[in-house]
Write a structure and sequence with these properties.
With 427 residues, the protein is of the alpha+beta class. It contains 13 helices and 15 strands. Helix content is 50%, strand content 19%. The longest helix has 40 residues.
Amino acid sequence: MYQTKIALRSLFYRKTQYISLFLVCMFGVAISLSAIAVSTGMIRSMNQKAKIYYGGDFAMMCATDDGLAIFDYEDSLELIKSTLPEDAVVTPRMDLLANDAAFYFEGVQALQRTIKGINFKNEKDLISSFYFVEGDFDIPENSNGLLISLPIAKMLNVHVGDEITFQIKTYNSFLNTVPVVVKGIFQDSSVFGTYTSYMDFNFLKKAYDRPENFANRICVNFPNRKINQKQLHDFYDSLKDKLNMYDWVDDKDVYIDASDYFKTETWGLIPLSANLNDVEIMELAMDAVISFIIVILTVIIVAGIGSTYRVLIMKRITEIGIYMAVGMKKRSIIATLLFESFLLLFAGCLFGLVLTGFFCSLISIFDFSFIPSFDMFLEKGNLSPHMDVIKSVAVIASVIIVTLLAVLYSTVKSIKIMPVQALAVTE
């Protein structure tokens, strides 16, 4: 108990000496945790946009003689529903790689890369994540409502309520033009948004000249929880009992390439991650950069506090000699100095957490949507930092433990001298 009193008294009377160490710890931890929070928030935003684009946590595709096609999709949808938990949102989609599709308005053309035919009512949990600068996603079934990105709306100079012409080459290679009405404009200039538009599932099928019972994928989303790899594999095993399933794939292209050689109708389960191989490389690069920054900051904190503490301990050698002279054991002296440094580190980390909250709140104020393609990492045009508890605890624990080890090393070396020698030293 007396070690605690000595440590607290030492910190109080030597506060001017320790303030610089406290600030190094506080700012080092704050910068490290802020970097983690910002990168985690960016990855979360990117994954959410990918979920909207690909339809949820995974998609079911079926390779047939007619390519990737699901005929009588309602029967397949009900069968898939029966194998999944009740909270799964299972809905058909028609994804159209729109190389020959474009929108026209007053003589201006805007080409599209992908047209998504969806049921807006079923997918409201996903689509509501969009940041709409105009309108919303209230599009009735079988209607000609349209959601387009802000860059396309600016290109065409259109607003919500404007009727534009949708030109598409049908399944049978005929050119078809249909009027569509802009119902919502969402802010997204990323690879998932700029040249991607959303319209009603049935309306798109009719425009593309496909039968009513057609879909080219069935998407599954769990809006209220995160699904891990084990659960996905369990779903795959359950579906395998009822459908002719292709092997598990970690890359969508593996299934797509193999589908040309299937002799019978073969289903594939495509998890969200199987669509994001290139994006995952980006995530790994971000993690590597952030990890490097954190390691450098941790080294600075440990080196700064450890070396400074060593000097302070050497200046307190007379005090240590007095402790030894009055019968205080070496392990008690070590415990006292370690507890003193622990209190300093704990306070620095605690205030670092507070400063992290301030940094994250400050950076979330600024609009970064002016940066081309950066919308992939933004929510409503802003960064949305998110604390990763495990990584944050790991950083704080590393700072405290490694620094205490450095202090322990300096302390052990200092108390090896005899009390008489220690008392003879003057500061």
